[in-house]
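Re: that backbone. Tokens:
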């Protein structure tokens, strides 16, 4: 395996409230030089949580996704605020989005969305033994809560409005860890 390319320079191209775009000049071990652009997320990444209502039911949310311009089904999610751990962010998002916290919060995995273009990472969790603990969130409209049978996860993955790759992966990891 070749050694990692050397970063020759990094040039900021654009900055928004959520992201920065950088040009990165790389020098590869074979002498080839290339410039790549990458998206740099602001903050500490994100969390996604699979809330387990009962051994046979999960809780999803339906919210507007501006990137695809439609309402999407998915799991509780949000960014990690500065100074928060992924676990703290997961609990806060549970409270804000579904009005509950969890006595058990188990880490599934940490995943990169597009490692060739971004440093953005999402920490996936499963929340069990839920209890009421509402917290006002930053959602622009109330989120619709949707219960889904664990036995029908294959059907959920076929839903045309369940397309977030992180949510899809979370269903497979949940099944694997639960021994389904």
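Recovered sequence:
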């Amino acid at each position: 395996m070749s050694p990692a390319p050397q970063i020759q320079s990094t040039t900021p191209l654009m900055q928004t409230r959520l992201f920065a775009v950088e040009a990165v000049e790389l020098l590869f071990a074979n002498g080839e030089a290339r410039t790549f652009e990458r998206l740099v997320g602001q903050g500490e990444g994100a969390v996604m949580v699979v809330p387990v209502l009962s051994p046979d039911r999960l809780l999803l949310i339906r919210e507007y996704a501006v990137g695809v311009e439609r309402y999407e089904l998915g799991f509780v999610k949000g960014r990690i605020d500065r100074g928060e751990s992924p676990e703290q962010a997961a609990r806060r998002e549970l409270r804000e989005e579904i009005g509950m916290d969890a006595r058990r919060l188990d880490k599934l995995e940490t995943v990169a969305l597009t490692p060739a273009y971004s440093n953005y990472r999402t920490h996936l969790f499963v929340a069990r033994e839920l209890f009421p603990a509402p917290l006002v969130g930053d959602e622009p409209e109330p989120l619709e809560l949707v219960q889904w049978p664990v036995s029908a996860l294959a059907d959920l993955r076929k839903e045309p409005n369940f397309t977030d790759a992180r949510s899809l992966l979370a269903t497979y990891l949940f099944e694997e860890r639960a021994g389904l």
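The chain has a mean pLDDT of 92. Strands lie at 6-15, 19-27, 33-41, 46-54, 57-65, 70-74, 76-79, 100-112, 121-132, 144-149.
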